[in-house]
Every structure is written in C-alpha cells, then in structure tokens.
Write a structure and sequence with these properties.
247 residues, alpha/beta, 2 domains, four-stranded antiparallel beta sheet, 34% helix
C-alpha cells in the first residue's frame, strides 16, 4: 500500500477546509504540489480552477483526516480508528511501562485484550473499558480475572488510583490525544502511561497537537516513532509512535 511522505501530510494538515472545498496554503514547490495533488485526487478531490480549491463529493475532512492519521492513500477498515495491537508490540508496551506484580493497571480501550493480556502476564491487576460489547467479550475470554466495563471511556469520571496506564486508543479525529489526556487523570502520583498513538502527533501543527506535545514535555514524556509495518499483521500500514508520560 502506498505510503505518503511526511512533507505531503504536513501540507494536507495545513490546508483550509470548508465543507467540500479544500484549499492548499503556502507556496509549494512544483514537486511537492504534484505529490500533494496526487494524494488529493486519489482521495476524490477534483481541482476547480474558479474556486481555486479541490472539491470533494462530500465533506473534505472525512476524506483527508484518515489520510493524515494513517499516512495511507486508502484505509483498510471502515473505522480507521480501530487497529488491533500486534502481540509483539503489546508485549513491548507492557515492558516499557515497567509493570510489576500487584500493580493496578488501566487499559482504557481494551479492544480484544492484547495489551492488557501482556500486562497481566507481568503481574498487573487489570481494569479495562471497551465501548464495543463484542470486543469486550473477546477481551474477557482471555482475561477472566480482569474488571472490564462496557462503556465510553471518555465519559468516565477520573479516579487517580492506577500505577500504570497502557493503551492503544482510537485515532479518528485526533481521538488518541483526547483519550490519552483523559487517561492521564487516572494515574496516581508517580504513575506511568504508555500509549500507542498516530505518529501525526509528532508533526501536526494544529493547536490540539502542539498543546499535546507541550503536555508531553511538561510531564517528563517521550515520543518515539515505531518502525514502518508495525501494524502490518493487523491489516494496515498505519504510521504510529509510542508516547510515555509520568504523573
């Protein structure tokens, strides 16, 4: 699947979108414009000279946002926010989190349970949330001792009692940032959060993203890009990173 260069993704992120119209901003050199135009056309945007914009059949943001978040020309799942964590990467998250026996561990978006399972194997006591009942059932099948609640995590009242938070939140419309910021409130002082996020948090320049990078820096955090193909076994080439935060 074709991957999109980061300089093109930055151009798309900086574009002005008004309904079906997308207008590119700044002075782009010929090569960058051609590459950006190729992506826009692949996404369904047609150049309209009189409007000086690319015109989409529906809302342009619905076509462009998945591309910025995944770095792909097309998305392999209807819900591009949902990518199951490969088992090896789930283990890596648990190791980075430094989970020890008896620690209270929160997985806010437990999905089918892979990260939580890796955390439990290291001795963590698991609490999880999952909005999808069928996915929660799959998680419960491999984590019978875990406390799994079927609910929208973002609607949960924070309770700062967890030693660790490990997570792979949905990426749609920058929900990964919203979920991580909310999950951070569940950590007790000195606790650690480790999240898989869209690597767009490392380069987007909108206020939500720049504020988030400042938040990471203010909480002794790190951002590390994961290798390309990290989610290949989950059916996508989505570009990701691992973010850590200390409460």
């Amino acid at each position: 699947m074709p991957q999109i260069a980061q300089d093109v993704l930055k151009v798309l992120d900086a574009a002005t979108i008004d309904g079906a119209l997308l207008t590119l901003n700044g002075n782009l050199d010929r090569k960058l414009y051609v590459e950006t135009n190729k992506v826009l056309e692949a996404a369904g945007g047609k150049w309209n000279r009189s409007k000086k914009a690319h015109v989409f059949e529906g809302n342009a943001i619905d076509a462009i946002e998945p591309i910025i978040l995944t770095g792909e020309y097309r998305v392999t799942k209807q819900d591009f926010g949902q990518f199951d964590t490969p088992e090896g990467l789930a283990t890596e998250v648990a190791i980075i989190a430094g989970i020890e026996a008896g620690m209270q561990v929160l997985e806010p978006n437990i999905g089918i349970g892979r990260i939580a399972f890796a955390a439990e194997r290291r001795g963590g006591i698991i609490t999880g949330f999952e909005i999808d009942l069928s996915r929660a059932a799959k998680a419960h099948a491999i984590l019978p001792k875990a406390n799994i609640k079927v609910a929208d995590f973002l609607a949960e009242e924070p309770e700062a009692r967890f030693d660790r938070v490990v997570m792979n939140p949905p990426f749609a419309k920058q929900d990964d940032i919203r979920h991580v910021l909310h999950a951070f409130k569940f950590l007790r002082p000195g606790g650690k959060l480790v999240a898989i996020m869209s690597n767009s948090v490392m380069f987007r320049d909108n206020k939500m993203t720049t504020d988030f990078r400042a938040f990471v820096e203010a909480h002794s955090g790190t951002m590390k890009a994961l290798p390309e193909g990290s989610f290949k076994s989950s059916g996508t080439g989505v570009n990701t990173c691992i973010v850590t935060l200390i409460a």
